[in-house]
Amino acid sequence: MKLNLKEISTGVEKKFKLKKYVPCDHCHGSGAEGDGGSETCPTCKGSGSVIRNQQTILGTMQTCPTCGGEGKIIKNKCKVCAGEGIVYGEEVVSVNIPKGVMEGMQLSMSGKGNAGKHNGVPGDLLILVEEEQDKELIRDENDLIYNLLLSFPTAALGGAVEIPTIDGKVKVKIESGTQPGKVLRLRGKGLPSVNGYGTGDLLVNVSVYVPEALNKDEKKALEEMEGSDNFKPNTSIKEKIFKKFKSLFD
């Protein structure tokens, strides 16, 4: 079952048609035609198992091949299901997905699998969770990551930018002199824990866009600013960049 981040954040109810074996309507799952009923298996005498002689005196027990371990056989088999009590059909299933699930998690719904033969115990339905890749947000456990690309003027002068979240866009203040690699943390804007223990954060990874082409006036303006000490990285900035780069290889 594929889920988007919004559905994972809040939990969701999903309904779908499931193709599976269901009880036969004609015989109501019994496998018998009309009042055909059943009788004790002549092979195992109703025990459902037989002894297969081996080298030991007692032999070994195995499922009766005549009745399949049920201990009874149907005298008059249903014409629709051929005495099986089940037919291939479909059922509309409603599934409640809890919030905070992750890719690869498996949910189990008891009794929603294939119907059992002759009104036997039905199997379970196993649901494997898949996540749809979001266009802007990246999931890291319960945290979300967004890569913010700032223009050079905004990084230098500061300003306000819009950041996408699960619940829509929010405005975030950018301080003047914001450096590439800085991480802004929006607390509680991530995903909830599937166990109910808190909510993750939204981490905004800041990058600065450097124009690939400049016109004549832009080049002249930058050349004039290049001589200013404010546009030269100081020692503390160099140390921060070195430590951040070094941490990538530690």
Could you please describe the fold and organization of this structure?
With 250 residues, the chain is an alpha+beta fold. The chain is 14% helix and 35% strand. It contains four helices and 16 strands. The chain has helices spanning 5-10, 152-157, 216-226, 235-247, and strands at residues 2-3, 12-23, 38-40, 49-52, 60-63, 72-74, 86-97, 106-109, 125-128, 130-131, 138-140, 143-151, 159-165, 168-174, 183-186, 202-209. The strands form seven sheets. It has a four-stranded mixed sheet. Strand 4 and strand 5 (60-63) form a beta hairpin. The model has no long low-confidence stretch (mean pLDDT 84).
The H-and-E topology, N to C, reads as: EHEEEEEEEEEEEHEEEEHH
Note the gap between the termini.
Answer: 38 Å
User: Share of helix among residues?
Assistant: 10-25%
Shape: rod-shaped
Order of neighbouring strands in the sheet with most strands = 11-12-16-15
